[in-house]
Write a structure and sequence with these properties.
Elements: E1 2-5, E2 10-13, E3 21-26, H1 37-55, E4 59-64, H2 71-80, H3 84-101, H4 117-129, E5 133-136, E6 139-142, H5 158-163, E7 179-184, E8 199-201, H6 203-215, E9 219-225, H7 229-244, E10 249-255, E11 258-260, E12 263-264, H8 275-282, H9 284-292, E13 300-301, H10 304-323, H11 335-349, H12 354-373, H13 377-393, H14 403-407, H15 409-424, H16 428-440, E14 443-448, E15 451-456
Parallel strand pairs: 3-4, 3-9, 9-10, 11-13
Antiparallel strand pairs: 1-2, 5-6, 6-7, 7-8, 11-12, 14-15
Helix pairs in contact: 1-9, 2-3, 4-6, 4-7, 6-7, 9-10, 10-12, 11-12, 11-13, 12-13, 15-16
Length: 459
């Protein structure tokens, strides 16, 4: 398998620290609000990678953190007139519930920042000890110029960064580039005891400490959105490697942003689509197909038209699986299915090229429909079995997980049964009326030698 490594800016052959095992860390949410549609992509991309690595024979240890102490959470708590811990707990539960609805597999460990303060303090003490950090009035800062390779992940030059930086009069930094590891306590804010007085951790140190605790040094994959490359991931590398003297993560995997009118979705900007709303409107499978229709490193623009295309595409798969349900399987996988499997595998091994992988699946579904039209039920059933297996590797579900099945499936199937009865008694007016009314609400009915098949309009 080959993966693009942001650190080297090349597609590299994937090798692991420990043979047959993958340690993977994903930056989870800062839980100050409900998830938006952009959070779906940051979760679906590593979820698909995890599923594919597992299918490829690796044993995965997957860590996704929860940032439950941070400036934005404190600000939200003040707005809601609640304590920060209550705000973090509320939105953590909402995030986890919506990830489950989205079909994202739960992490092996979901560490919370507030549960790892001791590890963070220990890491900061080590940085002070080696001269990479300094205390100033209860705050502790990382000294960026003490880390010679700072900027190599983001491709930024330290001197250029310094030229554009400035120190506010109240700051205690020695250099404008230095970033905070520990913040001195302020009235009304959560705080913990430390060698520098009561305070709380900075955002960057949280992920470094949690990743080190569960994965050690030189672990395999660190993933997150492109917006985290600088400063968050850059700072993670600097503080982690300055403390350990060893490589932090081997591969850095970054997904492109979800945009709305070509502008990054952001709560601060206000151009967000709530994930819960999107799940209610489109269903998990349609959202997943929409997101995976673009390569994970490319941006994807939220579009009603593209989501309609994704719905139609998923319903094509679902329609074939319904039409072949219960048919006998052939003794061997049909040749067209084996060829689609090879195409799918090649695409997934090539830096998780889900658009090409899904193109192979749409071609496979077309072959399955052709087999049905020709009356070759065994071939159609074999093709459907391969289609179900491969779509499952991307996280799609059809038993109770299809948007079409969940919302209209049982009603459509009952109407088609009544239509069949009408046709058998030669009451073609009633049969045509049922088909016509279904068409009016967007359900397209197609008659084939193996019986009626249906899908939603646009398929």
């Amino acid at each position: 398998m080959r993966l693009y490594n942001t650190l080297s800016r090349t597609v590299e052959e994937f090798t692991t620290r420990d043979e047959g095992r993958v340690g993977m860390y994903v930056c989870g949410p800062t839980v100050q609000n409900v998830p938006h549609f952009g959070h779906a992509r940051a979760a679906v991309v590593p979820d698909v990678l995890r599923r594919w690595l597992t299918h490829s024979g690796y044993e995965i240890f997957y860590v996704r953190n929860i940032t439950d102490v941070e400036d934005k959470i404190i600000e939200r708590a003040a707005q809601e007139q609640r304590v920060p811990a209550a705000v973090a707990e509320t939105y953590t539960r909402i995030y986890e519930e919506q990830m489950a609805r989205l079909g994202v597999l739960p992490p092996d460990v979901a560490p919370r920042a507030t549960g790892h303060i001791i590890e963070m303090i220990g890491l900061i003490e080590r940085l002070v000890e080696v001269g990479a950090a300094y205390e100033a009035g209860g705050d502790v800062f990382f000294s960026v110029r003490k880390f010679d390779t700072y900027g190599r992940l983001s491709g930024r030059n330290v001197d250029d960064l310094r030229a554009g930086a400035r120190i506010e009069p109240t700051e205690r930094k020695r250099d404008p580039l230095d970033f905070v590891l520990w913040k001195a306590a302020k009235p009304g804010e959560p705080s913990w005891a430390s060698p520098w007085g009561r305070g709380r951790p900075g955002w960057h140190i949280e992920c470094s400490a949690m990743a080190a605790k569960y994965l050690g040094t030189a672990f395999d994959i660190h993933a997150g959105g492109l917006d985290l490359i600088f400063p968050h991931h850059e700072n993670e590398i600097a503080q982690s490697e300055a403390a350990s003297g060893r490589r932090f993560a081997r591969y850095w995997l970054h997904n492109g942003m979800v945009t709305l009118d070509e502008e990054k979705m952001s709560k601060s900007v206000g151009n967000v689509i709530g994930l819960g709303e999107a799940l209610d409107r489109f269903g998990a499978n349609v959202l997943r197909l929409f997101l995976l229709s673009a390569h994970y490193r490319s941006p994807v623009d939220f579009s009603e038209a593209r989501l309609a295309e994704a719905r139609a595409g998923f319903d094509r798969w679902a329609a074939l699986l319904r039409a072949t349900h219960g048919l006998p399987l052939p003794a061997a996988e049909p040749a067209v299915a084996a060829a689609a499997r090879a195409r799918f595998t090649e695409a997934m091994d090539d830096d998780l090229a889900t658009p090409a992988a899904q193109a192979a699946l749409f071609d496979l579904a077309r072959e399955g429909n052709r087999a049905l039209e020709q009356g070759d039920k065994e071939a159609a059933a074999g093709i459907s079995a391969t289609l179900r297996e491969l779509t499952g590797l991307l996280g799609y579900t059809f038993d109770g997980g299809s948007h079409a099945d969940d919302l209209v499936g049982p009603l459509v199937e009952e109407l088609l049964r009544l239509r069949l009865e009408a046709r058998e008694r030669r009451d073609f007016a009633t049969a045509d009326a049922i088909r016509g009314r279904l068409g009016e609400i967007g359900v397209i009915v197609e008659d084939s030698p193996s019986g009626a098949r249906w899908h939603l309009g646009g398929a």
